[in-house]
Design brief:
The model has no long low-confidence stretch (mean pLDDT about 80). The protein has two helices and three strands. With about 140 residues, the protein is an alpha+beta fold. The chain starts with 8 loop residues before the first helix and ends in an 8-residue tail after the last strand.
Length: about 140
C-alpha cells in the first residue's frame, strides 16, 4: 500500500526543527504576557492595599489615639509587598471654623519592570477631624 510507507529520517528532523522554532516564538510571547499581567495586577493591588490600610490606620487613630498614623500604618502593611522605610507620611492641620481638620497624605515609590516609566508613586489622602465622627 502506498499510505503505509515509513517517513524518511530527513522529514522527521525537519518537523522537529519547525516545532522547536515555533515553540521558541510562542513560549517567549506567552511568558512576556504572563509577566506583564503579573506586574499590572501588582500595580493595582499595591495601590488598593496602601489606600485601604491608610484609611484603616486613620480610623484606628480616631477611635483610639496614642500610637500615631505612621506606626499603625507600618504595622498594618505587609513587609513583603511594601518597604516601610520608603513610606512618606505628611500631616497638615487646617482650621475650618471651630473645627480642626488634619490632612494626612501618604506616598510610596514603587518599581515596576514592565511599565514604560518603571517607577510609580502611590498617593493617598484622608482627613481626620476633632473626633471619631469627623473622618472624611
Amino acid at each position: 500500500m502506498m499510505f503505509n510507507k515509513p517517513l524518511t529520517q530527513g522529514k522527521i528532523s525537519q518537523q522537529q526543527g519547525n516545532i522547536a522554532v515555533e515553540m521558541a516564538f510562542s513560549l517567549s510571547l506567552f511568558l512576556t504576557t504572563l509577566m506583564a499581567t503579573i506586574e499590572i495586577t501588582r500595580l493595582f493591588w499595591m495601590g488598593y492595599w496602601l489606600d485601604y490600610n491608610f484609611h484603616q490606620a486613620i480610623k484606628d487613630v480616631a477611635w483610639n489615639p496614642g500610637l500615631g498614623i505612621e506606626s499603625r500604618l507600618k504595622t498594618r502593611l505587609d513587609s513583603k509587598l511594601f518597604d516601610n522605610s520608603k513610606l512618606t507620611i505628611k500631616q497638615k492641620t487646617v482650621p475650618l471654623g471651630s473645627l480642626y481638620l488634619t490632612e494626612y497624605t501618604v506616598s510610596y515609590p514603587a518599581r515596576f519592570h514592565f511599565l514604560p516609566q518603571q517607577a510609580v508613586i502611590f498617593n493617598s489622602t484622608s482627613w481626620l477631624g476633632d473626633n471619631e465622627n469627623d473622618i472624611i
